[in-house]
Amino acid sequence: MKIGIIGAGQLGRMLALSGYPLGLRFVFLDQSEDAPGAQVGRIIKGAFDDPRALAELAANVDVVTFDVENVPVDAVRDIAAKKPFLPPPSALGGSQDRLDEKTLFRRLKIPTPEFAAVDSQDDLIRAVEKIGLPGVLKTRRLGYDGRGQYFLRTRDDIEIAWTTLGSVPLIYEGFVDFSREVSIIGVRSTKGEIACYPLSANTHSQGILRYSIAPYRSATLQRQAETYLKRLMKHFDYAGILTIEFFVKRGQLIANEMAPRVHNSGHWTIEGAATSQFENHVRAILGLPLGSTQPIGHSAMVNFIGTIPTAAAVLKIPGVHYHSYGKEPRPNRKLGHCTVVAASASARDKSLRQLLKVRDSK
Ligand code: AMP
Fold first, then answer.
1. Are 335 and 309 in contact (CB under 8 A)?
2. Whose C-alpha in 12, 36, 210, 328 is 20 to 30 A from the C-alpha of 153?
């Protein structure tokens, strides 16, 4: 069997690496011929909405999936009519627009921050009056890793926020004074089988995930997160990995966003769970039995952004696994990650502290 992946970033590369032991082959579509996926599969060069490249990809594989969210849904509808395209285009489309996403959360009774559509400076003034300050103005589309966001603290910020972002459709959200950010990652196969990983606690800075700790144990939050995730899966008749990122405020989950793909906060599952999110995604879209999502210890995952230490510098820390994506260093670019797996939370935290020290020593 051959799987086509739209996008040959690190997520696509890790999907392929997890699928080779299952006897699978991979072909990518990407604009860049030296994207991380090139190390593990052939790349068909083209834009994500290039009909010729998409048709070539589809003609060469049995199933098509994606490792990025900004794949234009209209461009892939043709493929989806002819070849299994999973997760379904409806979920892909649903995650691309923050307004649609939050409207869906609200409709499915998944708590989400207060929000309002903003298409003019007057809309923004009204949204601030209704929802209050502080708040976050975000682009509706193509925002990720904190890009396309403006935090408003006072009314004086309205004008600058509008000038900075106002050329595209926007959403204004109430600021959530959260105690923690967590994510749930689950998987549903084409046969309807579902499995969920334990929650991961995520630390962001400047909108970018810096490190995650898993499992984050809270029986109540786990149950709640799984209920919301399954609701979304059912809504989309989903197949593949699905992620929801939440804020935790006063013991309640508030959904920030969903991702219809393998997720950075699930990288720990490669070494820290019985079956990785990558392998389970592949199994799910092929209708294979899912693997156990049980953790096999206490894990932490640290992202390397902009710079990456050498393997030699980190592998001396107990329980550390090193992943370099083979990318050219650039500011704010995710270049690799490390996962620590330990028998106890305290051993994990000790190795994590050492790892963060190496990351920050430059
Ligand atoms: P996003 O691009 O929506 O995932 O946002 C990136 C990060 O910005 C989140 O992980 C939070 O740390 C922060 N953030 C986004 N929206 C809000 C909000 N409504 N209230 C508080 N923090 C937020």
1. no
2. 210
Q: Within 10 A of 209 (CB to CB), how many other CB atoms are there?
A: 25
Q: How far is the CA of 63 from the centre of ligand 1 (A)?
A: 33
Q: How far is the CA of 258 from the centre of ligand 1 (A)?
A: 12
Query: Do the strands 252-259 and 240-249 form a parallel or antiparallel pair, or are they unpaired?
Result: antiparallel
Which tokens in the block code for residue 139?
């682009």
Q: What pLDDT, on the 0 to 100 scale, is given for residue 244? A: 98
pLDDT of residue 148: 87
Q: Is 143 in the pocket of ligand 1 (CB under 6 A)?
A: yes
- Using most ligand atoms within 8 A of CB, pick from 175, 178, 256, 265 the residue to mutate for ligand 1: 256
What residue owns the CA closest to ligand 1's atom 13? 207
pLDDT at 167 (0 to 100): 87
Alpha-carbon distances, residue 37 vs 5, 44, 117 (angstroms): 9, 11, 37
Atom of ligand 1 nearest to the CA of 147: 2
Helix/strand/coil for 186: strand
Question: 3-state DSSP call for residue 35?
Answer: coil
Question: Would you state the pLDDT for residue 146?
Answer: 63
Q: Which of 114, 115, 136, 265 to mutate to test the pocket of ligand 1 (most atoms within 8 A of CB)?
A: 136
Cα 352 to middle of ligand 1, angstroms: 24
Amino acid at 300: A
Helices 51-60 and 73-82, packing angle to 10 deg: 30
**What are the pLDDT digits (tens) for 31-79?**
999 999 999 999 999 999 999 999 999 999 999 999 999 999 999 998 8
> Taking the chain (362 residues) in consecutive chunks of 10 residues, what is each chunk's mean pLDDT?
98 98 98 96 97 96 96 92 95 96 98 98 97 97 77 96 93 98 98 98 94 98 98 98 98 97 98 98 98 98 97 96 97 96 98 96 78
* CA dist., res. 232 & res. 110, Å (int): 9
From residue 190, alpha-carbon distances to 32, 49, 135, 162, 243 in Å are 31, 26, 39, 44, 17
The CB of 146 under 6 Å from ligand 1? The reply is: yes
| Minimum-distance ligand 1 atom for the alpha carbon of 148 | 2
pTM over 0.90: yes
* Residue whose C-alpha is closest to residue 92's, from 119, 64, 72: 72
